[in-house]
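Morning, I've got a small favour to ask if you have a moment. The fold is given in discrete form, as structure tokens running alongside the sequence. I'd be grateful if you could look everything over and explain what you see. No rush at all, and the record is pasted right below.
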Amino acid sequence: MNAARFISFWTGFCSLSLEIAWVRLYGYANSSTPQAFAFVLAVFLLGIAAGAQVGKRICRLPTRDSIENGAVMALGLCAAIAAASPWAYLHSRQMALDDLVAPMAIFLTAASLSVLFPITHHLGTPQQSTDGDAGKGGHFSRVYILNVLGAALGPLVTGYVLLEYLTITQVFPVLATVIACVALSAWLMHGEARRKLALGGSMAGLVFALCFLHLGWQDRAMLAISFASVGERTVVAMHESRHGIIAIAEEAVTKRQPFVDHVVYGGNVYDGKVNVDLERNTNGLERPLALHVLQPEAKRVLVLGLSIGSWLTVVEGFPGVEEIDVIEINPGYLDLARKYDPQRRALEDPRVNMIVDDARRWLQFHQDRKYDLILMNTTWHWRANSSMLLSREMMQLVSHHLSERGVVAFNATGSTDAFLTASTVFKEARRYRNFIYGANWDPFSRAASAEAWDVLKKVTVDGKPGFREGSAKIREHSKIPFVHVNEDLKRLGRAAEVITDDNMLVEYRYGRKN
């Protein structure tokens, strides 16, 4: 009876843990799209249903010994699958077989563990009880509640602990080792007659898992699916934590780009560049610079999303800025930003207050804070959870934190729906390249004058003048128009919609389809 409860707890723990691990791995490989989560969940549930059917058939075997043997064999098999399946999936992408291998690997992972669900309840419920049906129900409920407790604890331990200190390709063999240990423990709880079969299965799973943990294939495999390693790029740094996976790649020197540049990929999508040279300007630095043109007298600035810190380094050089609050949810960006001297010095500036928190939560708990400039370093609009940054509710929250003459800017990444949403919240909203600027007053009339852009001559970067004397860059930036939303609506080809927390339309309805 106790063995059944023990196995029930750990199968629940490992099943949900492996689901979390697959969501991270498959989601990263598919650029953090929300469809990746839905795909893993659907296949995992199908695997659970199929595995439970197999377990049901094992429960019909004629003897208790044969049922217990089936349970231990299922555990040993699951340990091997949990260790091998991510390896098979990662390598299948190199052969363009991932569309076949991914659902198969997720399905088998879920099915091999769910075989134990009916078996543990069958073994944990005595055929005859002194208390009759009520006694059987009590035994059944104890097995069930331990499975539920394990399933609740698994995501917490895996999501908050294992993924914080281990890479995703280490989490799988660790969980496989746990499953193999459960199989070994189950063997020790049973009699002599089953030792050879049970020991062989459990030890094979244990050794297999431990081998994969130490073979050192993890980094090579992750590089194989990282867009940071595609083309003329070399990955120079990777950072993994429970908040996500960040990669930095070095671009090869070419005739078109005769200097070294580092590119940041967060969640396996482009996240910006390290460059802060306003003359080279390989990463659209005119977009944050436009904020200084719209509000040249800004004193208090809020930056939502540090990324690698390039935009912070530029904003820090705006004349007159006295205080900059930076909110970043992933502390891994801080570690990577400090590897670059300009970004490190920007973070060390006494005017900069670095806050590691969820931006939306922080804004809700600091309603009294007002800013002259708010720069939102938003990601691609089609990524999972992007609606939490682009929704009407978020825009209203940001608007509340603007001073009377404040201006907000965010990257809409080409979403006209995000532009329309901002236009319904702010009195004035315009698009400059792919950035949307909003304000509750009109700062755009002034920016239409080329002379207004001369304020950029005094901008410094890392303590040095941002532009050379007589540079033509400022005039080039001033010629880029601030576009009204009506112009984009005419070209959209459909009716634009307002993004809300509930409809998530930029992620699903109008998100990326592949």
Summary: The chain has a mean pLDDT of 89. The chain has three domains: 2-221, 226-273, 286-492.
